[in-house]
Write a structure and sequence with these properties.
Layout: H1 2-20, E1 25-32, E2 37-44, E3 55-61, H2 70-74, H3 77-80, E4 87-91, H4 109-124, E5 127-137, H5 139-150, E6 157-161, H6 169-176, H7 189-197, H8 202-206, H9 210-213, E7 224-230, H10 238-251, E8 256-261, H11 267-285
Parallel strand pairs: 3-4, 3-5, 5-6, 6-7, 7-8
Antiparallel strand pairs: 1-2, 2-4
């Protein structure tokens, strides 16, 4: 009887521990009225998440042809954030370029990211809305910078890894030089850009062009900007574009840092460069770290 009682007690303890355990990686979905669709996301919670605390948040965006699982399946982001008292949200956004489509009014992805998604996250988790960051790679790098510059009061930090920041200015270039090679070749990238931005609304394109936006607001109104691009990036216009963009940031007195390092447009590069991005984010946003912070 004593042995049975001991086993029962151990079983109860185990069950209780499991019942209160909070898995760090959550796969969630919700209906977004802005895109009239159920959208998916992956959320990384702090290792010791407690509802009684308010946590800073990082919205981490995927690239073209990517999805909400990319960051957790193709990098060690789960490990890198293990000791950070911060929530990371990785939303699905398809090939939207993170804007409200100018050719399909049912695809309002900017509203989805900036309105619908934060409301859902706030309803599910304990978020410190005064400490928000946004970052991404390639298409998501463009999206992160564009949204941070369009909504500077929403974010303290914006991160861009190999960002496609030539978008949407490339449309104006193609329209001005009809015979010039189309970025992305004959594949689907350029049509997706036209679908998102249209060809008849230059005002809209300018209002979503990071080079234009970077000159708009005074430095004290903008988030800290982190940029990194590979010297051997296969999109050969990305490197000179980042040099031009950071020249503008410097000229207009913005807070930023720029990493121009060896690497190509690949997950190896993004897995490496997300680490210094996170370190700077932790410093800028004053994110608490649990003892034994993860390093690689």
């Amino acid at each position: 009887m004593k042995r049975f009682g001991l086993l029962a007690a151990l079983a109860l303890i185990t069950f209780t521990s499991l019942a209160f355990a909070q898995p760090r990686v959550r796969s969630l979905s919700f209906y977004s009225p802005s895109v009239h669709e159920t959208m998916r996301m992956v959320v990384l919670l702090p290792e010791h998440y407690q509802k009684s605390m308010k946590y800073p948040i990082l919205y981490l965006l995927h690239g073209y042809d990517g999805n909400e699982t990319d960051w957790v399946t193709k990098t060690d982001i789960t490990y890198y954030t293990q000791r950070l008292a911060m929530i990371v949200v990785m939303p699905e956004a398809k090939n939207s370029w993170y804007v409200n489509s100018q050719t399909d009014t049912s695809e309002r992805y900017e509203n989805y990211i900036m309105d619908d998604l934060p409301k859902f996250i706030d309803s599910e988790f304990s978020v410190d809305t005064t400490r928000q960051a946004i970052a991404g790679l390639s298409m998501g790098g463009y999206g992160a910078l564009m949204l941070a510059l369009r909504y500077p009061n929403n974010f303290l930090f914006a991160g861009d890894l190999s960002g496609a920041i030539t978008i949407p200015g490339v449309i104006d270039s193609v329209l001005a030089h009809p015979g010039a090679p189309i970025p992305g070749g004959q594949g689907p990238i350029y049509p997706s850009i036209v679908k998102a931005f249209g060809t008849n609304n230059k005002s809209f394109r300018d209002s979503h062009n990071v080079f234009v936006l970077a000159k708009r607001d005074s430095a004290d109104k903008l988030p800290y900007i982190f940029c990194a691009v590979g010297i051997q990036d296969g999109f050969t216009d990305f490197l000179p574009a980042h040099r031009e963009f950071t020249d503008i940031l410097r000229k207009y007195g913005k807070l930023y840092e720029y990493h121009e390092v060896p690497g190509v447009h690949s997950w190896t590069f993004w897995d490496e460069e997300i680490q210094p991005l996170l370190r700077r984010l932790v410093s800028v946003m004053k994110v608490a770290e649990y003892p034994g912070a993860a390093t690689k």
